[in-house]
Design goal:
There is one protein chain. The two termini are 45 Å apart. With 348 residues, the protein is α/β, with parallel strands linked by helices. The model has no long low-confidence stretch (mean pLDDT 89). Helix 3 packs across helix 15, helix 4 packs across helix 6 and helix 7 runs parallel beside helix 15. Strands 1, 2, 3, 4, 5 and 6 form a six-stranded mixed beta sheet that branches. Helix content is 45%, strand content 11%.
């Protein structure tokens, strides 16, 4: 008797194989398909005229893009190749093989519809008891544009492919990608793309998205940001939207003095000045504890998206398409995060 497992690549299957048998029951690819099956894709499907040859279903194309972005495969050519080479991609594609042009056209054509699906995923997370809003940490990160810096020689080109200063010195053609992240679950709740070099004007668009969220998600109580977002106008905008602002007034030191960290709260000032009121809140024990959540919430999300998911550059050109792709990326992150949260909740 041989001590090795038999190797046989020639014998045919006695019964036709099923793609359902190829993956473990808790695999992310299964979860991606499960989530997409529960989304309302009517805004996509009704735009297919029904002429010519049969089209790949939007659920398949969306699933391939989301699973691809979640696993660092962003190129439509690489996704097409993966439907042949990868068991997980083959499962998501239901053993079909959409070509790269079909995938690229779908991504480019339905950028607006993807933004609406982003909210549907949040509602589904709430129905699965994986999300309930409370405190949101907001920050921005630079994402390279799909453009060549050497071609931006005129003001017209530079203004359309915004050139921004980057940390460490120098300038790059980038977008300012914003994300508001739930501090309890690390799911992205708001997202938008800006061409502004700093974050001063990003509070209002974020508040507009918060106000527009479905009531079933719960109420956002607090918006937490670093000092790059601070201005009196932004504090007032938060108050007007019914959200308590915790916008750092200055760059915080990494190691506060021990006596300061454990000092008792000072009495609340008798003033109507919103800046003074917020400064007092930031100085309380509860305020400091809330603000500390910012670094462990939104910054890790950016780090995982850029380093683990490998997404550092837009695939499409133009602000509208960049906004759509950022919605696709953050939706992929949310589904990936939901998968982890569900497995964790089942283990408890």
């Amino acid at each position: 008797m041989s001590r090795f497992v038999p190797v046989d690549r020639d014998t045919a299957y006695l019964l036709p194989p099923s793609v359902d048998e190829w993956l473990p029951s808790d695999h992310l690819a299964r979860f991606v398909v499960e989530v997409i099956e529960q989304l309302d894709l009517s805004e996509l499907t009704r735009q297919y005229a029904g002429r010519g040859s049969a089209a790949h279903h939007p659920a398949v194309l969306l699933g391939l893009l989301i699973y691809g972005y979640a696993n660092g495969v962003h190129s439509s050519r690489k996704i097409e190749r993966a439907t042949y080479d990868s068991v997980a991609f083959r499962y998501v594609a239901a053993n079909t093989h959409p070509d790269h042009d079909t995938l690229a056209t779908f991504r480019r054509r339905f950028v607006k519809e993807v933004e609406l699906l982003f909210v549907q995923v949040l509602v589904l997370a709430r129905e699965m008891k994986l999300l309930k809003l409370g405190h949101i940490a907001l920050d921005g990160t630079k994402i390279d544009a799909n453009a060549s810096k050497h071609r931006a020689l005129s003001w017209g080109h530079a203004h359309k492919s915004r050139i921004m200063p980057v940390s460490g010195g120098g300038f790059e053609q980038s977008y300012n990608a914003q994300a508001g992240v739930d501090t309890e679950t690390m799911m992205v709740v708001t997202r938008h793309v800006s061409q502004a070099c700093n974050d001063k004007r990003e509070i209002v668009p974020t508040l507009e998205q918060i106000v527009a969220l479905p009531a079933v998600l719960g109420e956002v109580h607090t918006l937490i940001t670093d000092n790059g977002f601070f201005s009196q106008a932004n504090i007032i905008a938060c108050r007007d939207a019914g959200v308590e602002p915790l916008l750092a007034l200055r760059r915080e030191s990494h190691h506060a003095p021990v006596l300061e960290r454990f000092a008792s709260d000072v009495p609340q000032p008798q003033t109507t000045d919103p800046v003074v009121q917020m400064a007092h809140r930031l100085g309380t024990q509860a305020g400091r504890a809330l603000y500390r959540l910012r670094k462990q919430t939104v910054e890790p999300v950016f780090g995982i998206i850029k380093r683990v998911m490998g997404w550092c550059q837009m695939s499409m050109r133009g602000l509208a398409k960049a906004q759509g792709e950022w919605s696709l990326v953050t939706m992929a992150w949310n589904i990936k995060r939901m998968h982890v949260l569900r497995v964790t909740s089942r283990a408890i």
